[in-house]
Amino acid sequence: MAVKLNKNEIKQRLIKLRNFGMLHPKVRKKVKLLEQQIKLLKEENTTLKALVAEQKLLIEKLRLRIEELEQMVFGYKKPKAFAQNLKGHFNQVGVSDDYGAYRNLFKYHQLCWAHPLRKLKDLSLSGTLKDKKRGLCLKTHQGLRALHEELKISVARTFDLLQRQVTKSLLFKKFQEIIQPDQDDPEKLKKIKTALSKNKDKYFNAHRGKFPVSKYF
């Protein structure tokens, strides 16, 4: 197959051949050896680039797999299929956080108080919020924590249906007052209050053997 060269390419090749021919035989030999070494180095460089690209791809796959496992174990963006595997029998009482995949997963569903209390505690200790906004977070956390203590005491008492209904009504009213929005609430506090308001009924139910509150906050 013939190779077509333009005038400049032919000129450059002739100059190169002419200069190369003027060199001493030993020098020409060294030049050829250097050219071979340069060619080998270029081939090795191409191979290394391909290996680096392959390693980057493997690292990215590993990162995604680790992220997927963390999501499944620690509860961030948990896939519904994973939640399905955890639920057991449909008639069991499910106690969880307010993640959407759990919404219709259980026939009897309670929401754990530990999650919102922990979020509020973290916000009240935030170093990025101004004093006023951090104070609103602290107020909400303290109010919900005190209500949590009242609820624990109520549940621990001997069961009396009428008394339970009266107590629940009073505590439920306090709950709604605590989560009442304030125009100065930081964005994260607004989201927590909105979620609490949306799911308020599920924080005030209890089934045999399933305590609706946490002792840790």
Structure, explained:
- The protein is mainly alpha-helical and 217 residues long.
- It folds into two domains: 9-74; 97-201, no CATH class.
- Helix content is 65%, strand content 4%.
- It contains seven helices and two strands; from the N terminus they run H-H-H-E-E-H-H-H-H.
- The protein has a two-stranded parallel sheet with strand order 1-2.
- Helix 4 runs antiparallel to helix 5, helix 4 runs antiparallel to helix 7 and helix 5 packs antiparallel against helix 6.
- It is elongated, with a radius of gyration of 35 Å.
- It starts with 6 loop residues before the first helix and ends in a 19-residue tail after the last helix.
- The model is unreliable at 208-217 (pLDDT under 50).
- Pfam families: DDE_Tnp_IS66.
- InterPro entries: Transposase_IS66_central.
- Residues 24-72 form a coiled coil.
Helix content: 55-70%
- Quaternary assembly: single chain
Strand content: under 5%
Tell me the distance between the termini.
Answer: 82 Å
Major β-sheet, in short? 2 strands, parallel
Mean pLDDT: 75
Taken together, the total number of domains comes to 2
InterPro entries: Transposase_IS66_central
Pfam families: DDE_Tnp_IS66
Protein name: Transposase IS66 central domain-containing protein
Keywords: Coiled coil
